[in-house]
Amino acid sequence: xxxxxxxxxxxxxxxxxxxxxxxxxxxxxxxxxxxxxxxxxxxxxxxxxxxxxxxxxxxxxxxxxxxxxxxxxxxxxxx
Length: 79
Prior knowledge:
Layout: H1 12-27, H2 38-78
């Protein structure tokens, strides 16, 4: 099961892979059950994981900036 595959949530590269997976599922309605589309699925999973890792790194950096800002404000108030 994948996360939400809405186009506005992903990069253009991942959107291309998602569309390829969807086309494979539409074109091979029975073969998809025996792993015909697994290579597309693996590519989508890998791309989504890279996006998640990048998003997490950006969130951590933003949190560190906010913590540093708060710490600086608290030190100014104490002085």
